[in-house]
Amino acid sequence: MENNANKKPMAMSGARNGVRNGADYIASLQDGRSVWIDGERIKDVTVDRRFRGAIQSIADLYDIQCDPALQDKMTFESPTSGARVGRSFMLPRSADDLRLRREMMKTWMDAVGGMMGRTPDFLNVMVSAHASAHELFAAGGEQFGQNILKYHEFIRENDLALTHSLVSPDIDKRLQMFEQPGDMVMRVVRESDAGIYVSGARSVATLGPLANEVLIMPAAAKFPLVADAEAYAVGFAAPIDTPGMKMICRPSLPAKGRFANDPLTGRMDEMDAVLWFEEAFIPWERVFMYRSIKAVESAMKSPSGPHGSHQSATRSLAKMEFLLGIAYNLTEVNHSRFPNVMVQLSELVAYVETLRAMIRVAEIDCVPGPGGTVVPYEQPLNVVRAQYPAMHARALEILQLLGAGNVVVAPTVEDLYSENGPAIERYCAGADIPAERKMQLLRLAWDASCSSFAGRQNLYEKFFSGDPWRNAQMRGERYPGAREAQDRVWAFLDRNSEWDQRINGQ
User: Fold this and answer.
1) Is 412 assigned a ligand-binding role in the annotation?
2) pLDDT digit string, tens, across residues 172-195
3) 206 is in an annotated binding site
4) Distances from the Cα of 352 to the Cα of 111, 235, 313, angstroms
5) 11 in a domain, yes or no?
6) Is the pTM of this model over 0.70?
7) Would the annotation count 164 as a binding residue?
8) Do 180 and 329 have their domain in common?
9) Does 500 belong to an annotated binding site?
């Protein structure tokens, strides 16, 4: 076996014991990571204009959890160090724990209007769920179960921001992942006494350039009988600055001038990237499954799905509430609360209250999980996953209808302070507010419903949890209440003879 003493150490060590603030987070990104955008390698993402807005938005979230007034809501005492750590790392043991965690997540989501889909709490709750079910990872060897347990403690005590990437690029959609031509699918290429080496690509890694670590899990639950299928049965975590790993980002979304012009685009373009590995070295302590299809099938039983859906449903609620707020404000600035407008607003109200109810049902009807934990009841969260993309698309349409031409021709801050300012003050004023305030609202409505940012958001909502058609198929096939509903129908029909006798005397 090869000696890797010359490799950059990436062991899970040096715990800081506790939450970090925004400045800590920003400093953690200055690590020489290989991030590429527009054909250029970025030396420091924290100073590049294409990343700075989203980085600061996440930094603000870390600052929120350090607010002494919010300490009990946002943090809890670490079971190992006793330090205050982020509540999204908590292993919930009751419905009340789920509620407390959701209130923490909602605080973060309200701060960004639900517009960032990969804030750190998303992967925090998923890795925590994996840790609660660490025995499942031990199906490939006891050490792998211990690795995921220790990794959870590591990211909790260091308060790290994670991303993940589950999707493999495809060239020919007729072929399975393992059958794609070339060597593009991420796989193990060799191993040593110290760890494994991986090569290939993964996409999409949302938040990748702005995260500290990436979690890689197998892209398929079932493996066909192909040569060396076990090479693809690998799961691990790696720092973003891992040698041999690079990120190729999509173009940044346009944001020019002041934030009042592009209030969402300028602050919350969390970025998407393709990950590329070229014999990247992963130490054994960071490997969670290795060349074991049995371990992959076992780990798929982890409750990370329902816990992740709990976070994403909370984000959906915050987002719909934010869109509802924009819609109500659009009707107020011109006193346009006519009956047809109220009907449109009522649709958004129904979405908000439906989401709120589904989340609470998932918490109240939670089920026992591994290691004395509880798991949110999955079915209402599946409903949210299924219905929210259509809710979101309709909400954007309603904003477009309410804003109409006013949104299209909304002036910029630069226009307001140009020689045309006096004219803009007159024609852009609201019924009860000055032109500048109305302009800010119209620019926000544009950014939320019509801009490049809005288009990316709409696509994200359709696909962030996977192929919507496949997910719908699985929900139909696996709904646990189907048999009971069917039996109830047959039991009803079985009473026909009884009713003939009772009513007709036959």
Assistant:
1) no
2) 767 666 666 667 788 899 999 999
3) yes
4) 17, 37, 11
5) no
6) yes
7) yes
8) no
9) no
